[in-house]
Design goal:
854 residues, alpha+beta, Agglutinin, subunit A, 4 domains, eight-stranded mixed beta sheet, 16 helices, flat, binds 2-acetamido-2-deoxy-beta-D-glucopyranose, kinase, EC 2.7.11.1, S-locus_recpt_kinase_C, Receptor-like serine/threonine-protein kinase, glycoprotein
């Protein structure tokens, strides 16, 4: 069985039941008057019982006044009053100050250890009949008893957020009073609420944006608000039926906020100490906080990843590209995939004759130093930029209603990224010769040159258009074939911000965001014992590397799969932590989903969602069942596995080598969507590591690449090898190991290759598929399979090329060389007419080469 992951914090969460709440006696109401006080064993509760105010401690030696959701079991603290000045023992209390205009926290020796007025800009007037009230919004307010108008409140906790933005809270500036509100992480999640290093702060200069800071370093920026969403969050849906995002700008106030129309939905924006901004929503049915959205998501979200005039594109290789008309400043570093030096102009600007080049679908560059005029249109904007020689680019501010407003950049363009869809357009100033088509301009006759440019340009446009349409058409294929599991990186991002409101109804489309349960629930050992019928033999699903897997049914009816790690599995607590960390962090619809863990004494268990159709090998290699896999089904399984693996290798924030990819580790859900499982052997590579060596070769014969089996060297390319084997198995319905053709000299790989070079590749196809299949699709898959199992790792494509080749009939594909481990290894070298390798399979290089069987 597979597993999934997250991080230490999540792991710790499993154990964070140490939290002590003395809150047994609720002061009957939601209010505290000047004559009352709140001791550490008392709480206030909001009128409808949504939030609770009280004290908590993790250690007995530090006590904090805080607000949390009253009815959520794992107390989720959303606000802490005295985060940096805890009470040292539980004998303190909270009361309204003597003048009635602040609240104070008093310790055992009657010293004031915290007061709301240390934060407020002095409210000196004294008030007689003030009350402290906890509202159902989670706002704790100090006000005159009959005053309900928010601007008249004497003090409110919403003005002093901790690490959480609740609906109705504002993140930003009141420009009249100079008051700023931002959120700052805890020092240690679920352990230490004191101010941590991470904060999310709005900068109102230029065109306002929100920045995630780690101490004094920016690590991520939202991009400016474009009327619908943040420029850097294309997946943000302007109209969700439950969460409404608000970005307000006027001369008095600049803030970001959100509101929830459906009262029963809990959603919060939270900055976690690990450097992630997370929007979490509470899922009632499973009682977990679900990660609805988070950032930064990938390397292109890292601030200034590609330096000035660089543009980061996760679908490109390398991810850093220069804006048209620019080239890398430091080619050597650039080649080494180090992009932060950025790019420089090919040709200096001339000012007068400069032109603008339009970039589509980008995250606008940093807007702190820009000039803004909200009433100008795009034409006026171009004019303004053109007139000022230091203007480097311009764009509309808002994208709604066809676009409006004008923003112009003076100086470098920083932190841009390319989106497949959903970004914004920006017009970048270039020397005229860098804009046009006829770059090679050393002609003698200028008229001829111009004519040449026009004709050449037109031809190029037509050609480009043709290619684009072709590409687009083909690009759609794999995606459409995948039916419900349509996704490339562009689809994914859209799913993230989809509202999870009708909780179950949206599951199909956005299963990915359902996977994001960061807060891993800890299952009780007894619950699991009951669910699995005391680990009965009858419930056994299989035996994996590190233990036995059981099927279980929770009392609520949810089906689960439980991996019970054998005590002598060799998987110690460290490896277990590893797996849990890894699994929780991985979120992809083609990876199996971890629901929780359970730990009791030396019993360690992982709880996964149950996959109705079990594993691929159970169907593929079973005579009676394999006919249920028609070609479309198989193709979508191949595409799904490829995407899952691409995610592991490249898109997730780690580089993960699975090391044991095989048919039995591919699980199939109700709709036969594949999910990669079993990460017990997976390895995380640090950023630049490309291969590693292991003394202990783990994995499964038949799927292991030669360099791994023989020398213990593994890299993404060893996974690619296993993937290739899997593809050929899926097409042929035969196991690589145990399949021998004719004189028993060939295994499946050797046999497939032989058929391929003899031009009989279609004979490989499993007869139970029938006649309903696209020949070119099958051939393309066989070619991909063969490319993946080539003997030399460096010949094998990367998973991103594989995904591209699978989804496009027009991608350039090399002719496969001989596979590794096919026996007959030195049979004639293929005439590798096309020696294009991995990197050339980018969209730019798409050409029209229809594949033919040879
Ligand atoms: C806190 O104090 C209680 C009793 O006062 C004790 O039982 C508990 O073990 C203490 N917890 C910690 C974490 O020290
Ligand atoms: C609550 O705490 C106060 C002082 O801290 C103490 O006097 C009182 O007895 C406590 N009440 C209960 C029910 O524990
Ligand atoms: C208020 O702030 C001052 C310094 O700004 C500090 O000396 C004092 O201890 C603080 N008082 C409280 C109650 O936190
Ligand atoms: C913005 O543009 C409009 C229209 O061109 C102009 O009338 C106005 O003065 C500009 N505002 C500023 C602050 O420059
Ligand atoms: C261009 O804009 C910058 C920034 O506002 C300004 O300092 C500079 O004077 C302007 N130059 C011209 C020629 O208008």
């Amino acid at each position: 069985m597979g597993c999934v992951t997250s991080l230490l914090n999540t792991f710790l969460f499993c154990f964070s039941t140490l939290l002590i709440f003395l809150s047994t006696i609720s002061i009957s109401t939601d209010t505290l008057t000047t004559t009352q006080s709140l001791t550490t064993n008392q709480t206030l509760s909001s009128p409808q019982g949504i939030f609770e105010l009280g004290f908590f401690s993790y250690t007995n030696s530090t006590w904090y006044l805080a607000i949390w959701y009253k009815n959520i079991d794992h107390k989720t603290v959303v606000w802490v009053a005295n985060r940096d000045t805890p009470l040292e023992n539980p004998t303190g209390f909270l009361k309204i100050g003597d003048k009635g205009n602040n609240i104070v926290l008093i310790d055992q020796s009657l010293h004031q250890i915290w007061s709301s007025s240390n934060q407020t800009t002095t409210t000196t007037t004294s008030t007689r009949n003030s009350i402290l009230q906890l509202l159902d919004s989670g706002n704790l307010v100090l006000k005159e008893s009959n005053e309900n108008y928010p601007t008249k409140f004497l003090w409110q906790s919403f003005d002093y957020p901790t690490d959480t933005l609740l609906p109705g809270m504002k993140l930003g500036w009141n420009l009249d009073t100079g008051m700023e509100r931002h959120i700052t992480s805890w020092k240690i999640k679920d352990k230490d609420p004191s101010s941590g290093d991470l904060s999310f702060k709005l900068n109102y200069h230029g065109l306002p944006e929100i920045f995630l800071w780690n101490k004094d370093q920016i690590i991520y920026r939202s991009g400016p608000w474009n009327g619908e969403r943040f420029s850097g969050v294309p997946e943000m849906q302007p109209t969700t039926n439950s969460i409404k995002f608000i970005f307000h700008v006027d001369e008095h106030e600049v803030y970001y906020s959100f509101s929830i129309e459906n009262q029963i939905l809990f959603s919060r924006l939270f900055v976690s100490p690990i450097g992630e901004l997370q929007r979490l929503t509470w899922i009632k049915t499973t009682q977990v906080w679900n990660k609805f959205w988070y950032a930064p998501k990938d390397q292109c979200d890292d601030y200034r990843m590609c330096g000035p005039y660089g543009i980061c594109d996760t679908n490109a290789s390398p991810v850093c590209q220069c804006v048209k008309g620019f080239h890398p400043k430091n080619q050597q570093n650039w080649n080494l995939r180090y992009g932060s030096d950025g790019c420089v102009r090919n040709k200096e600007l001339d000012c007068e004759s400069d032109k603008f080049f339009k970039l589509h679908n980008v995250k606008l560059p940093e807007t702190t130093l820009v000039l803004v005029n909200r009433s100008m249109n795009l034409v006026e904007c171009e004019d303004l930029c053109h007139k000022n020689c230091s203007c480097t680019a311009y764009a509309n501010i808002e994208i709604t209603n066809g676009g409006s407003g004008c923003v112009i950049w003076i100086g470098e363009l920083i932190d841009m990224r390319q989106y497949p869809a959903g970004g914004q357009d920006i017009y970048v100033r270039l020397a005229a010769s860098d804009v046009g088509f006829g770059g090679g301009s050393n002609g003698t006759n200028s008229t001829a040159k111009v004519a040449g440019i026009i004709v050449g340009g037109a031809a190029l446009i037509l050609l480009a258009l043709g290619f684009f349409l072709l590409w687009k058409k083909n690009k759609l294929q794999c995606i459409l074939k995948g039916k419900t599991e349509h996704r490339g990186s562009l689809e994914r991002s859209h799913e993230f911000l989809m509202p999870e409101v009708g909780f179950s109804s949206k599951r199909e489309q956005s299963s990915e965001s359902n996977i994001d349960d960061l807060e891993l629930p800890l299952f009780d050992f007894n619950t699991i014992t009951i669910a699995t019928n005391n680990f009965s033999e009858h419930n056994k699903l299989g035996q994996g590397g590190f233990g036995v897997v059981y099927k279980g049914i929770l009392i609520e009816g949810q089906e689960i799969a439980v991996k019970r790690l054998s005590k002598n599995s060799g998987q110690g607590i460290e490896e277990f932590k590893n797996e849990v960390k890894l699994l929780v962090k991985l979120q992809h619809r083609n990876l199996v989903r971890l629901l929780g863990c359970s730990i009791q004494m030396d019993e360690k268990m992982l709880v996964y969602e149950y996959m109705e159709n079990r594993s691929l090998d159970g169907i593929l290699f079973d005579k009676s069942k394999r006919s249920s896999l028609d070609w479309n089904r198989r193709f979508s399984i191949i595409c799904g596995i490829a995407r899952g693996l691409l995610y592991l290798h490249q898109d997730s924030r780690f580089r993960i080598i699975h090391r044991d990819l095989k048919a039995s580790n591919i699980l199939l859900d109700k709709e036969m969507n594949p999910r990669i499982s079993d990460f017990g052997m997976a390895r995380i590579f640090v950023a630049d590591q490309t291969e590693a060596n292991t003394m202990r070769v783990v994995g499964t014969y038949g799927y292991m690449s030669p360099e791994y089996a023989m020398d213990g060297i593994f890299s993404v390319k060893s996974d690619v090898f296993s993937f290739g084997v899997l593809v050929l198995e899926i097409i042929s319905g035969k196991k690589n190991r145990g399949f021998y053709y004719a004189n028993k000299e060939w295994n499946l790989l050797g046999h497939s290759w032989k058929q391929w070079i003899e031009g009989n590749a279609l004979e490989l196809i499993d007869s139970s598929i029938g006649d309903l299949y696209s020949q070119s699709e099958v051939l393309r898959c066989i070619q991909v399979g063969l490319l993946c199992v080539q003997e030399h790792a460096e010949d094998r494509p990367t998973m991103s090329s594989v995904v591209l080749m699978l989804s496009s009939e027009t991608a350039v594909m090399a002719q496969p060389k001989n596979p590794g481990f096919c026996l007959g290894r030195n049979l004639a070298e293929t005439d590798s007419s096309s020696s294009k390798q991995d990197e050339s399979f980018t969209v730019n290089h798409v050409t029209v080469t229809m594949l033919e069987a040879r």
